[in-house]
Protein backbone atom coordinates (compact mmCIF):
# COMPACT_ATOMS: atom_id res chain seq x y z
CA UNK A 1 0.00 0.00 0.00
CA UNK A 2 2.83 2.39 0.87
CA UNK A 3 4.54 1.64 -2.43
CA UNK A 4 1.40 2.56 -4.38
CA UNK A 5 1.12 5.85 -2.49
CA UNK A 6 4.78 6.55 -3.16
CA UNK A 7 4.33 5.95 -6.89
CA UNK A 8 1.20 8.13 -6.91
CA UNK A 9 3.06 10.96 -5.15
CA UNK A 10 5.97 10.70 -7.61
CA UNK A 11 3.52 10.74 -10.53
CA UNK A 12 1.82 13.88 -9.19
CA UNK A 13 5.17 15.63 -8.70
CA UNK A 14 6.39 14.70 -12.19
CA UNK A 15 3.09 15.79 -13.77
CA UNK A 16 3.31 19.11 -11.94
CA UNK A 17 6.86 19.64 -13.17
CA UNK A 18 5.84 18.83 -16.74
CA UNK A 19 2.96 21.31 -16.63
CA UNK A 20 5.18 24.01 -15.10
CA UNK A 21 7.95 23.47 -17.65
CA UNK A 22 5.52 23.49 -20.56
CA UNK A 23 3.94 26.72 -19.26
CA UNK A 24 7.31 28.45 -18.94
CA UNK A 25 8.40 27.39 -22.43
CA UNK A 26 5.18 28.53 -24.14
CA UNK A 27 5.02 31.84 -25.94
CA UNK A 28 2.74 34.46 -24.33
CA UNK A 29 0.27 34.12 -27.22
CA UNK A 30 0.02 30.36 -26.70
CA UNK A 31 -0.33 30.88 -22.93
CA UNK A 32 -3.27 33.20 -23.54
CA UNK A 33 -4.93 30.67 -25.85
CA UNK A 34 -4.39 27.96 -23.24
CA UNK A 35 -5.98 30.13 -20.55
CA UNK A 36 -8.95 30.80 -22.82
CA UNK A 37 -9.32 27.05 -23.34
CA UNK A 38 -9.03 25.90 -19.73
CA UNK A 39 -10.44 29.07 -18.13
CA UNK A 40 -14.10 28.00 -17.94
CA UNK A 41 -13.19 24.63 -16.45
CA UNK A 42 -10.92 26.21 -13.85
CA UNK A 43 -13.62 28.69 -12.87
CA UNK A 44 -15.93 25.77 -12.08
CA UNK A 45 -13.31 24.51 -9.61
CA UNK A 46 -13.16 27.93 -7.94
CA UNK A 47 -9.89 29.17 -9.46
CA UNK A 48 -11.40 32.31 -11.00
CA UNK A 49 -8.93 34.66 -9.25
CA UNK A 50 -5.94 32.57 -10.29
CA UNK A 51 -7.03 32.47 -13.92
CA UNK A 52 -7.70 36.23 -13.92
CA UNK A 53 -4.28 36.94 -12.38
CA UNK A 54 -2.50 34.72 -14.92
CA UNK A 55 -4.47 36.28 -17.77
CA UNK A 56 -3.50 39.80 -16.64
CA UNK A 57 0.15 38.80 -16.39
CA UNK A 58 0.16 37.18 -19.85
CA UNK A 59 -1.56 40.19 -21.44
CA UNK A 60 1.08 42.38 -19.82
CA UNK A 61 3.79 40.27 -21.41
CA UNK A 62 2.09 40.54 -24.81
CA UNK A 63 1.81 44.31 -24.63
CA UNK A 64 5.40 44.64 -23.40
CA UNK A 65 6.56 42.86 -26.54
CA UNK A 66 8.68 40.20 -24.91
CA UNK A 67 9.11 37.69 -22.17
CA UNK A 68 10.00 40.35 -19.56
CA UNK A 69 13.44 38.81 -19.10
CA UNK A 70 15.32 41.87 -20.29
CA UNK A 71 15.36 45.41 -19.00
CA UNK A 72 12.80 47.93 -20.23
CA UNK A 73 15.55 50.56 -20.21
CA UNK A 74 17.56 49.73 -23.34
CA UNK A 75 20.13 52.45 -22.68
CA UNK A 76 21.28 50.80 -19.46
CA UNK A 77 24.22 48.47 -19.99
CA UNK A 78 24.83 45.62 -17.61
CA UNK A 79 28.46 44.89 -16.78
CA UNK A 80 28.55 41.62 -14.77
CA UNK A 81 32.21 41.90 -13.81
CA UNK A 82 32.23 45.65 -13.40
CA UNK A 83 33.64 48.20 -15.81
CA UNK A 84 37.05 47.57 -17.27
Summarize the structure.
This protein is an all-alpha fold and 84 residues long.
Describe the structure.
- The protein has 84 residues and is an all-alpha fold.
- The protein has one domain.
- 69% of the residues lie in helices and 0% in strands.
- The chain has helices spanning 2-25, 28-44, 48-64.
- Helix 2 packs antiparallel against helix 3 (48-64).
- The longest helix has 24 residues, at 2-25.
- The N and C termini lie far apart (63 Å).
- The model has no long low-confidence stretch (mean pLDDT 82).
Indicate the proportion of strand residues.
under 5%
Measured as a percent range, the helix fraction is 55-70%
User: How does the helix and strand content classify structurally?
Assistant: mainly alpha
Please indicate the count of domains. Answer: 1
Number of distinct beta strands: 0
Q: Sum up the overall morphology in one term.
A: flat
Helix count, DSSP H or I runs of 4 or more residues: 3
Report, as a whole number of angstroms, the end-to-end distance: 63 Å
Salient structural properties:
mainly alpha, 69% helix, 0% strand
Record the SSE blueprint.
Blueprint: H1 2-25, H2 28-44, H3 48-64
Amino acid sequence: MELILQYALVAVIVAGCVVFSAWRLMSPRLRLKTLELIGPAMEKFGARNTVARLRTKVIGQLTAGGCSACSANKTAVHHPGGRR
